[in-house]
Design a protein that fits this description.
- The chain is 22% helix and 31% strand.
- A hairpin with a 2-residue loop joins strand 17 and strand 18.
- It has 7 helices and 23 strands.
Length: 400
């Protein structure tokens, strides 16, 4: 069989983090299935990317299956319905001829730059899975051959931005059966050419060169999890009875005694002066932290009054020794009031350990495009695995 026929079977999976859907192939003017493409297409739209339309926060995903043409599922925000629809689209893909590797990556870049930007966008990426060879992509462009097309893609990946963010392009590469020894330079050039340069997030680089097909699943999972940028927030809620205005109070974490002036032994506490706000809501002023920190700052207003209790929430709690702030940290939580007559701390027997902590993971938005090479050389068994890996990739993303 001719070499171009073998290359038709090359596998590629490109995952590009994107916003909304392009339903046309930006270069060839084709329809949503990549049909009717001519040879007089443009060379990519360049620019900083993004249509200027702000989208709701979330994870956005589109899919392209490609062989001799492109089959596109519009980019949509992942929810219970679109997740299942996306996975069904992947399951319905079938193998065919040709391997439009460069054309698929270039189309992903165009799609990224043509769409709106979700709120709190932190990740824009392309992830490629390929056996490293391309056949025929340049015929859908004005480039003089594949090498010129590849150079243009490399330039776009490493210079263009979406929503002010760099586009991170991963490549999962496996040497296909049609990659012979004399093809290795082309194979390696492709892996590097469609990938981003190494950075602090992936110091080993964005090329994931695997030697067995089963390793593909692990690579996809690692990449998918990296697309989640999170901020862990430890929030502590305190429910003390509202003290008299201008009372100094101290909440200790590390002592069990209730003796007079026992609060002086504490090395881990929150202290402040309780006052009534003009709206009748209690406020802790001049708040000091020892052994712990909080992003709530030095003035903390009660989130509500459940009379006679004042409900305070302290965001971003952390232990200064680097240990995790959790329910164990508040196991011995106590409240003390400073008695100005005796100049000492008095344990508040009316305060029970009403504190509690809530750990939340706040995810930022991402834009994703999944491009699946549907060429014949993969064979039925490995193509089935590829579709399963792609669906697992969607499952990891849906945790956002």
């Amino acid at each position: 069989m001719q070499r171009f026929t073998k290359a038709l079977a090359a596998i590629m999976l490109t995952v590009a983090v994107v916003c909304t859907a392009c339903t046309k192939d930006p270069e060839n003017g084709g329809d949503n299935n990549g049909n009717n493409g001519g040879n007089n297409g443009g060379n990519g739209n360049g620019g900083s990317g993004g249509s200027g339309v702000e989208l709701p926060a979330g994870m956005y995903l589109g899919v392209i299956g490609f062989n001799q043409q492109l089959y596109t599922r519009p980019i949509t925000r992942l929810d219970a319905n679109t997740i299942q629809e996306t996975k069904q689209f992947i399951e319905n893909l079938s193998m065919g001829g040709a391997t439009l590797l460069y054309h698929s990556v270039n189309t992903s870049l165009d799609m990224l730059e043509a769409n709106g930007i979700p709120k709190d966008l932190k990740q824009v990426a392309i992830v490629n899975f390929t056996d490293g060879l391309d056949e025929g992509s340049y015929t859908f462009s004005n480039y003089n051959g594949g090498a010129e097309y590849l150079r243009a893609i490399t330039q776009r990946i490493r210079t263009e931005k979406v929503g002010g963010l760099e586009i991170k392009s991963h490549t999962i590469g496996i040497q296909g059966t049609d990659v012979f020894s004399y093809d290795m330079n082309e194979f390696l050039d492709n892996l590097n050419g469609i990938s981003s340069l190494a950075d602090e997030e992936w110091p080993a680089g964005y090329v994931h060169h695997v030697t067995s097909f089963d390793e593909v699943s692990e690579a996809f999972e690692a990449i998918a999890r990296s697309l989640h940028q999170t901020v862990e927030n430890a929030k502590m809620t305190l429910n003390p009875p509202a003290p008299e205005p201008n009372t100094k109070v101290r909440f200790t974490f590390d002592i069990t005694t209730t003796d007079y002036n026992g609060a002086n032994q504490s090395q881990k506490y929150i202290e402040g002066v309780y006052v009534n706000g003009s709206d009748g809501i209690g406020v802790l002023t001049n708040v000091q932290y020892r052994g712990v920190t909080s992003t709530s700052g030095n003035t903390v207003k009660a989130v509500r009054m459940e009379r006679p209790f004042a409900i305070f929430e302290f965001e971003g709690m952390a232990n200064t020794d680097g240990s995790e702030f959790n329910s164990n940290t508040i196991a011995h939580l106590q409240e003390w009031k400073y008695n100005t007559n005796s100049n000492g701390w008095v344990h508040n027997t009316e305060f029970t350990n009403s504190g509690n902590t809530e750990i939340t993971n706040n995810y930022y938005s991402g834009m994703i495009m999944l491009n699946l090479d549907c060429s014949q050389s993969l064979g039925n068994d490995q193509f089935r695995k590829l579709r399963n890996y792609a669906k697992e990739f969607v499952d990891v993303l849906k945790t956002n």
